[in-house]
Amino acid sequence: MTGAKSSHFYYIVEVVHLEIRQASRQDIAGIAKVYVDGWQTTYQGLVPDSYLNGLSYEEAEERWNQFLDTGHEPFIYVVINGEGSMAGFAAGRSMEGEPSAGELYALYLRQECRGLGTGRQLVAAVARHFQESGIDSMLVWVMEQNKSGLGFYERLGGKEYSRRTSTFGETVVDDVAYVWRDISILYEAHGSL
């Protein structure tokens, strides 16, 4: 064919190297920073600005140290990027009074790590940790107005299980619990470690 133009498309693919591992006490400062920064971006407009502005790294460090000191077999997994910086974390614990159930207590990622599959990998790490501890089901609480969070857990196969309310400052919000009765689907389908 004469006179035909050929089109070439070039894609630039940035390879991001991430390490997921169980956290230690030395990781708490990084966890606290990701936690506060995550709250201030994710929940802006959903909870009062006064609540978000009142969050501090120091108080968050204390909170996460206390989390690790409580009962219910708490643990945290962290994501470390190629430069050695904390990119996100997920925390889990066993459910009080339910020996075969676990709770995905928290999942936070830096903005630049969202949409790369990192959240799925963290959920898979938590699910595998539970499975190795003899726990076969898991739930997570999500603010109902956090539509991206709801969509994320629904895409992972979570089923709505329960509802509650939480209070932040003067604002009462609705929370939705998603449950997985068989957590093996989370690490088999969404990335085993």
Describe the structure.
Helices cover 33% and strands 32% of the residues. The longest helix has 15 residues, at 28-42. The chain is built from six helices and seven strands, in the order E-H-H-H-E-E-E-H-E-H-E-E-H. Helix 1 packs across helix 3 (57-69). It has helices spanning 28-42, 49-53, 57-69, 118-132, 147-155, 184-189, and strands spanning 18-22, 75-81, 86-95, 98-109, 137-143, 159-168, 171-180. It has 193 residues and is of the alpha+beta class. A hairpin with a 4-residue loop joins strand 2 (75-81) and strand 3 (86-95). The model is unreliable at 11-15 (pLDDT under 50). It has a single domain (18-189), classed as Gcn5-related N-acetyltransferase (GNAT) (Aminopeptidase, 3-Layer(aba) Sandwich), CATH 3.40.630.30. This is GNAT family N-acetyltransferase. Residues 18-183 form the N-acetyltransferase domain. InterPro entries: Acyl_CoA_acyltransferase, Bact_Acetyltransf, GNAT_dom. It holds the Pfam family Acetyltransf_1. GO terms for molecular function: acyltransferase activity, transferring groups other than amino-acyl groups.
